[in-house]
Each structure stands twice: as C-alpha cells, then as structure tokens.
Write a structure and sequence with these properties.
By secondary structure, the chain is α+β, with helices and mostly antiparallel strands. It has a domain at 27-85. It is built from two helices and three strands, in the order αβββα. Strands 1-2-3 form a three-stranded antiparallel beta sheet, with helices on one face. The radius of gyration is 20 Å and the shape is elongated. The N and C termini lie far apart (44 Å).
C-alpha cells in the first residue's frame, strides 16, 4: 500500500514545526499589564503580552490615556474574564 501525499505531510508537520521553532498545538500565554506611557508617566496604558517559553512573541496595546486606577481596573477585569473563560 502506497502512502498518499496528504499522509506524508501530516506525519512531517510536527517535525517541521519543531524545527522552525513552532510547537504544534502549543498556545502562547496571554497576560495583561498596566504600564506607564513613555511620554508622560502620569498617563497609563493597558497592554496584552503573548509569551511562548518565556519569550515575548507579541505585545498589543489595548487602551491608552488612562489614569492609574482605570488602567488597573481594566487589567483586573481582563484577568478575571480570562480565568472565567478557561
């Protein structure tokens, strides 16, 4: 019985992903942080950080021009939603 092209590719995919640094089926950890802006330390922003194996893969800025208490409240809300959704 001969192997089809699809079966060969399916068996090679995990090896290729690992070789190029992409773990098959591994999702990055997502964390939320309140940070000060560089321009004005009194203005805060909320960022979403994606990490994979303790290496930052992506950072998204979700909200800017916030006061500290608003930024921390938004982070608390996002973290709570994340725990509830898991």
């Amino acid at each position: 019985m001969a192997l089809t092209r699809k079966e060969i590719l399916k068996s090679l995919l995990p090896s290729l992903n690992k070789m190029f640094g992409i773990e098959y089926g591994v999702k990055p950890d997502i964390t939320y942080h309140a940070r000060r802006t560089d321009e004005n330390p009194k203005i805060w922003k909320v960022v979403e950080v994606h990490t994979l194996y303790d290496e930052v893969k992506e950072t998204k800025e979700l909200a800017t021009d916030l006061k500290r208490n608003r930024a921390e409240a938004l982070v608390k809300l996002l973290r709570g939603n994340q725990k509830h959704g898991s």
